[in-house]
């Protein structure tokens, strides 16, 4: 780990309560959603992380706290270091989507990435100027990359697992809701 | 879900100018079926005469749910889907996914496999740039370049075919190395490309670089400065044309790129012409890399010996019980990937292609996400095209080199 990265991790832990969570030699930080924007602003302005390289999410269904991790990948071209951020958030409450603050103000590139997450995971980004679906059709229902969203094929139902699969079925889910 | 989808003007209100509502400007659809959108890209243009006031890219027409599908397949089966994202950079997509798997599994790749991977990805980079060059020139009404480019591209696809059996969707790279070793005639075929290709690049340049019509159409069009390019996440030749030196092959070398000597061309102007110059120079640099890799192509194994992840050679199956067991496990359950998550970038012909791979310890990926350069670059299209003519918009789309399969996944 380079000196710069050590400084970053230390500052993030001390000032923003971020927990280091290294994985396979890469540096990741777990950040509370309310501290995210402040941390990223500091990373951008003080530590020269000029690229928002990637933005995605991961679903931990059926767990609810946290249900999702929103995953950011920042890169500093000047220091040639990368740091990943993971923001744990709770699942949707009924029709209400989980909300995370948008990074569009800091990195304009975040706009489409956040739209993709809105589309695919049903995570709303507060402050995004264009919160529309991007990949799926406008009138699509549901969020395909969620783990409780069926893949599309019909699963064979037997007596022993009939109810389990019925709940997972697309029609079944919407009747229930 | 339903076949009738209506989007009202109100929903797009924030993306259009005031004048769109009064009817002073015209809204015009360009695409999804339009030859110069390089696939199925739809642009909603707000035009004042012929100049573009605002441009709203609409993607997703080629969305095939690759990330979702990969979650339902074992790691190796899922790899087949990666070819189909960016169909001009198939081995590059395999590479980023394999590297991510290898990082998670801590698998070693033998030097021979690494060198062959480098040779093929660099050849693929040239092939991709050739398609880009041909179509880009064609958009600007230079028909003959297209024909020459596709002639040379065929030589490269022949090499890919002799390795994997497929011209494009080969899935040739596998976790731990390659599917099989390269055939005996591989070296000769690559040498042939190395022999003829430098002169061919000169020919393309002779057709375009100093061509007054081409220069008129490309200089000072679609200009973006380095600072904005970084903020909008541009990478690859599109970023380097604006004068920012960032190449993943140099910044975080993978597959032994650190052993090869090559330059990263960096431009100054940040316009369509600069991006053209970048890619032409890159083709020559790629040839340098291929030549070095081929000259010192190591002998030895073409894939790792770790039987928990890599299948045993066919011949072993008749003599070794253990080999049969490994084979059976790998072909039924697949391998169990250690828990963890990684983000791995590589330099695709278009820019930074990143793979976020997360494993929950099972035989199927928990989450795969590809950070694809085309997706990010398309987002900057409104910024690049503002105030230009529709004809210039065509040049700009060509210059950022988008592949819609890459953008939509």
Summarize this, please?
The complex is a heterodimer of chains A (177) and B (409). Chain A is α/β, with parallel strands linked by helices.
Could you characterize the architecture of this molecule?
The complex is a heterodimer of chains A (177) and B (409). Chain A has helices spanning 3-16, 36-46, 110-121, 162-168, 170-176; strands spanning 19-20, 28-30, 51-59, 68-76, 81-89, 99-101, 124-126. Chain A has 177 residues and is α/β, with parallel strands linked by helices. In chain A, the strands form two sheets. Chain A has a five-stranded mixed β-sheet with strand order 1-2-5-4-3, covered by helices on one side. A two-stranded parallel sheet of chain A has the order 6-7. Chain A is elongated. The model of chain A is unreliable at 172-177 (pLDDT under 50). With 409 residues, chain B is mostly helical. Chain B has two domains: 9-58, no CATH class; 68-304 and 338-408, Orthogonal Bundle (Cytochrome-c3 Hydrogenase, chain B), CATH 1.10.645.10. In chain B, 47% of the residues lie in helices and 11% in strands. In chain B, helix 4 runs antiparallel to helix 5 (111-139), helix 5 (111-139) packs antiparallel against helix 12 (272-295) and helix 7 (186-208) packs antiparallel against helix 12. The longest helix of chain B has 29 residues, at 111-139. The two termini of chain B are 19 Å apart. The chains are: A alpha/beta (177), B mainly alpha (409). The A-B interface holds A 23-26, 28, 50-54, 56, 58-59, 71, 73, 77, 80, 82, 84, 107-109, 111-112, 116, 120, 129-130, 132-141, 144-145, 149, 151 and B 1-2, 5-7, 11, 14-15, 59-60, 63, 65, 67-69, 72, 103-104, 106, 230-233, 244, 246, 251-252, 340-343, 345, 352, 354, 356, 358, 366-367, 369, 371, 375-376, 378-379, 408-409.
